Amino acid sequence: MDGVVGYIVSVVVIPALVAAAVASIALVTPLRRRAWAVECFPAMAVALAFLVSFTNELGWTAVARQVITIEGDDAPFERWHRLGLAALMLMVGAVCIVVARMRMPRGGAPIVTMVALGIAGALAAQFVQFPQPTLLKQLGLAALVLAAGVALPLAGGAIYWIAWGAFGIVAALAGLGGFASLAVMCGAVSVASLLIAILAAIGGKFAKDAKPMEAAGAPLVVCAVMIALAARCGDAYDQSQTPDWLWWLVPLVPGFALIFTKQALRAPSIAAASFWRTLGAALAGVAILGAAIALDSSQNAGGGGEEEDPYADMYGG
Amino acid sequence: MAAMRNALLLAALVASPISLAASPLSLSLAPAMASAPRSSQDATAAAAASAITFDPIHSMAIFRVQHLGAGYFYGRFNELTGTATWPLDDSAAPTFDVTTEVKKVDTGSEKLDGNLQGPNFFNQAEFPTIQFKSKSAERVGERHWKVKGDLTLRGVTKEIEVDCTVSGVGKGPTGQKVGFECMFTIMRADYGMKWGIEAPKGALGNEVRMTISLEGDVAKAAG
Fold first, then answer.
1. What CA–CA distance (Å, rounded) separates B14 from B16?
2. Given pLDDT bands bounded at 50, 70 and 90, which one contains residue B172?
């Protein structure tokens, strides 16, 4: 197999298919009638897509190195490798959130989601630090997780469609910024989210009493944390001219589903409502991406032409 | 004569603790004292070993790596800094302490420079410098040495052997200059730089050949 094709299969296609397989356990089987399954499996699958892509590229040692000392391992500790561990923790966290929400009395489930989001934001700020961390940056990361958690519920049933777009934007920005690994990992999550959204639509059409997809509980926390971490990571290592504020806008993309709220509420079907919500977020995503490309191009164009030789005066000496 | 005068001056200063403690010169003399030789024979050799400060404008490193299993791709690190010691009569081995900043990588393409500075390659945000510090040397021929030392790249330090030739001793408007050309080969995966070796397979080679050209100013003898 061609090197690049083999690479894409290994770090994008296989992780997305593995994630889709896990999500399909709940989406296209009789479990589709169980709210806990519809909440748990797809949420775990999103984190799993990132984890499989991460380990296919860097190996399990890159995750294990975060928590234990491996004999004979002299590879450098790199801060961004913590994303792999974060994805693993989110898989465990998704199960815990689902269990906690099930055990709560009626009306208590949203409290579990809010508490889980708060804990996830605090843990992210404490344990996921990128180069030159400052208190302000870490507080910013926690705020970004919370902001994504507030924006995502606006996606409603279109959460995985919108996750497809949001992770796709991070992947594109990371590619623009010269961070190929983050680009393919977010690409894997983006494709996985798309497959989950398609499976959810198909399963919902054919299963009787199918539980709808909701931007709440485990999917909300997993997607909010992962989008915020990926965007912050991309920003920290960015080598392009993309300004920080554009990166920080990405976790808020799901909130732009609000643009077509009227149309979504009047839509004749869930699928139509999802379309309108996704369209709003997609427009925001395209605007962010367009701005990043335009800024990068203008900066490069500005620096082009015949550059003055800074050492010109040295040759005569 | 100048070297002997310096050695005598140093001996006089060492013998006078009052002058050292009281004088602001004590700070600048401290490194010289730490490496002060014990015997007079050593003193002569050490005095003869010239301190060389590299001129970043005329010092650079060129790397070569195979692209897609086909052609060799060349890039360079501009503005190497650091110091060396070497007696101009080649009576003893040179020592090196050379550093470059990852952001000085230059491939002729800003886009590619950005990629190389990113986490898949040199990871400039976390590991901003690359350093080589020599530990020992073995003579190969006239003005030709095999220098062993530690290369620190991406936070990983490994011992390497560098083939080092004195390219010349010349004179410029600012004084005497010495040039070195050093070559070595590393496996980049040893330093955690694995992107493009296995994934995507064969995109970029593992073996990186480095050619380093250093030019430095010989410190003028005091007095």
1. 5
2. confident
